[in-house]
Write a structure and sequence with these properties.
Chain lengths: ~160, ~180
């Protein structure tokens, strides 16, 4: 398999649609619009559970790598020292926007999920890496988490 | 239907400049640290559109790609904290912070306002590839070594690239240890 690096999903998607490359790992908003038209084919999702937008597509965990779970999240930020009223105003805007019907429809179509808690930086990026051991047994190498919003990485290392 | 307005008593108690009561009173710049077309860019533009409607001011997306998102993020971090320059932040930031030494502090130099959403990645093929499952894909790749091309994008260099190679190896392990009749 030949690895072709791109700087961003945009150019990678363009080449994939044109058939210059065969496959990518694309995030939901990038690839979902092209699924229903048949321009692209999904064969696996990287979340722990199947995506509501693609209920018939198995997860990577189901496809032979148990425990696999990899997501990405998006957030809004400002520089340090942003006045609290400005932050509050944006939080109000975000609440209203994310509860609006158009956003919910757009999120569902794109395979985006609303995080459980929008504010106060409680989200985590869970990235579990499953690797083969010397004896050929899979073990969980590490769990990369972000809590509350730092780069405090490998939280735990477990072996089976 | 009248829109709900934030309480102005809060602004008065803060004792800040009267301009904050009308925030935003001019266009807001939203810096997306990736090239157009990526996941962050799409989500940011959708949110900006909605914010335009809710604030009746322009929220304009500026793409500043490079260095895996660090250039644009640093731009947003160093901007004047007046609320007219904001940025997007994604999972790539803590991943970059773990791998590189950043020119700013990813914890203290920015103010996290709100999360927008989460999504997973989809292993996506062009329809000409003769595979509908990961098993078929791996079989096809083994039968045609060096022919398949895989494009990785900057937004998920660690997760996607590593995950696929691991998926591959794990799949080989899995297939070598299960009997053919037990597999789907």
């Amino acid at each position: 398999m030949v690895h072709v690096p791109y700087k961003s999903s945009g150019p990678a998607l363009t080449d994939l649609l044109a058939g210059h490359i065969n496959m990518i790992y694309g995030s939901g908003p990038v690839v979902m619009p092209h699924m229903s038209s048949g321009k692209l084919r999904a064969i696996a999702v990287t979340t722990e559970k199947r995506s509501r937008a693609l209920p018939s597509i198995p997860t990577i965990a189901e496809s032979g790598v148990p425990g696999y779970d990899s997501i990405t999240w998006y957030g809004l930020m400002g520089p340090r020292g942003l006045p609290k009223p400005v932050v509050a105003r944006w939080q109000t805007i975000m609440s209203e926007a994310l509860q609006s019907r158009e956003m919910k429809e757009r999120f569902d179509a794109d395979g985006l999920e609303m995080p459980e808690r929008l504010f106060r930086a409680r989200a985590e990026t869970r990235y579990r890496q499953v690797d083969e051991g010397r004896q050929g047994r899979e073990h969980q190498v590490g769990e990369l988490t972000r809590a509350p919003f730092g780069a405090r990485c490998i939280r735990s290392v477990e072996r089976s | 239907m009248p829109k709900r307005r934030p309480s102005y008593r809060f602004f008065a108690a803060w004792g800040g400049a009267p301009a904050l009561a009308q925030y935003p009173s001019k266009p807001v710049r939203l810096i997306v640290p990736f090239a157009p077309g990526g996941g962050t860019d799409i989500v940011a533009r959708v949110m900006a559109q909605k914010a335009n409607e809710l604030t009746r001011q322009s929220v304009i997306v500026h793409n500043r790609g490079g260095a895996g998102g660090l250039i644009g993020t640093e731009l947003a971090v160093r901007a004047t904290p007046d609320g007219y320059t904001l940025g997007t932040v994604t999972a790539s930031l803590p991943i970059s912070a773990a791998a590189f030494r950043l020119p700013f502090d990813p914890v203290n130099d920015l103010t996290l306002i709100s999360l927008i959403g989460e999504t997973g990645y989809v292993l996506t093929l062009h329809p000409t590839v003769p595979a509908r499952t990961t098993n078929e894909l791996i079989a096809h790749a083994k039968a045609n070594p060096g022919k398949l091309t895989y494009g990785s994008s900057g937004a998920a260099p660690l997760t996607s690239r590593v995950s696929f190679s691991i998926c591959w190896r794990a799949q080989k392990w899995f297939m070598s240890r299960t009997r053919a009749r037990d597999r789907l």
